[in-house]
Amino acid sequence: MSSPRGQFSSRIGFILAASGSAVGLGNIWGFPTNAAENGGGAFVLVYFLLAFCLAYPALMAELIIGRHTRANMVSALQIISPGKTTRLLGKLTGFYGIIVAALILSFYSIVAGWMLAYLLEPMVSLSGLPGLANWLTEFSAPRNLLFCAIFLIVTCAVISAGVEHGIEKWSCRLMPALLAMMIFLIVYVLTQPGAVDGLKLYLIPDFSRIGDPKLILSALGQAFFSLSLGVGTMLIYGSYLRPDDNLPAMGAIVTALDSSVAFLAGLLVLPAMFVARHQGVEIYTPQGALMAGPDLIFQTLPALFKTMAGGTVVALLFFTLLSIAALTSSISMLEVPVSYTLEQHVASRPMATWLSGAIVFAISAVIVMNFDTLFAAVVTLTTHYSQPLLGLMLCVFATWVWRRDRVLEEIRRGLPDVQHSLFWRIWPGYAKFCCPALILLVLAQSLMN
Ligand code: PHE
Questions:
Q1: In 3-state terms, what secondary structure has residue 204?
Q2: What is the mean pLDDT of each run of 10 residues along the chain (449 residues)?
Q3: Is residue 233 classed exposed, middle or buried when 0-12, 13-18 and 19+ CB atoms within 10 A define those classes?
């Protein structure tokens, strides 16, 4: 059963879809909480450095391979491999990417389900159903399963509509809404008393922390997670790009948009914490560290919203923002196994979508039922280790395995004089030697700690 390959209908469609993939819970939740945990401004500085110096080159490797091969990651890495051994390695790397994408989606959809539950809570409370409202915000396996399933069903519905009518259409609708909501919330929070203390912590770096290995590993993992790297999402989005699009520019725009939204989210969340403190909400743990992780999103901020004038609307907007961000990312994750299944010609798009969705839900259910043992382990394994490692492999494939003249030819299609550009002077050597070495260095350092 063969089906024609999808393609983004416009440049802006690709930019919004790829930045929709990139902008997600990683930006709005992960980035500010990582910053809160790792000394505020110091983390922000290291993050930006790594995003542009390590993650952007790896993103380019994915986009170039994707657009040239017009295939999913498993086939793509085989297509660019000249020898038997490298083809086998490509196949294995591709499968590793698909498995990691499915694992990420399985924990991501649990967390996104929490956002949906918290989104409903204010409305349920207002309708005079306190029992149900409590159930929505209390941690329980039935709630987690139900909302994870709802979130995955919405994700499947978008993906089964295809590239142009699903991914592109919804990214173009949701991304502008997300930005507008975010800016409104930032302006609102910054006008509240106490916000300035949060701004100071966020924007003034504590230089003594910049060399901290924990901070560097967190920033690296965050940068790779945030740009959706390594698992083939950007590769497959690149494969839906038109041949005449300028790849280095597209990649740079997506990196800049993603980092800007992360930066904006910090402007929202950290000042909001200090506004909460001003209102008497505890924002430090008993050990004296700033609250981070789930406590921050599900306790500190909702407690703050309750004290604010118009807090119900603010809470509603905040959790809608998180849900939208999660959806535009989850569709890109699901597209990875779906495009693979489609291109093996074994199923139609809707069938491939619902089948992949069902498998992901089964994994989510196992995680939900063994939450304490599995959740954090899956997050660490996939995002801290597998994504950088896969990013490294993609750099290796694009620069060591693939022929350099073919790479050049591919970029030239959208940028005829790339040979004389700064990008071509730096990227090939940089992605060949520096990126793999730096990624290995950070990973080795973290394993030794
Ligand atoms: N980039 C997304 C975020 O920041 C997460 C993601 C990871 C999406 C891997 C696709 C693939 O939330």
A1: coil
A2: 73 93 93 87 92 93 97 97 96 98 98 96 91 95 98 97 93 92 92 93 87 84 92 96 94 97 94 90 85 82 83 89 94 97 93 98 98 95 91 96 95 94 95 93 80
A3: buried
Question: What sign does the dihedral 293-294-297-302 (CA atoms) show?
Answer: negative
Cα–chain center distance at 206: 27
**Which numeric CATH code is attached to 11-284+292-448?**
1.10.4160.10
- Confidence (pLDDT) at 230: 93
Query: Which of 19, 327, 332, 383 has most ligand 1 atoms within 8 Å of CB, for mutation?
Result: 332
Report CA(21)–ligand 1 centroid distance (Å).
Answer: 6
Residues lining ligand 1, CB < 6 A? Answer: 21-22, 24-27, 104, 225-226, 228, 231, 233, 329, 332-333
Domain residue extents for the chain: 11-284+292-448
Tokens found for residue 211? 């060399």
Q: Check residue 70 and report its DSSP letter.
A: -
- What is the model's pLDDT at position 4? 62
Ligand 1 atom closest to Cα of residue 23: 4
Which structure tokens are listed for 204? Answer: 């003034």
Dihedral angle, C-alpha 392, 397, 399, 405, nearest 10 °: -160
Take atom 9 of ligand 1 and give the residue whose Cα is closest.
228
Residue whose tokens read 């106490």:
194
Q: Which value, to the nearest 10 degrees, does the dihedral of the CA atoms of residues 126, 128, 132, 137 take?
A: 30
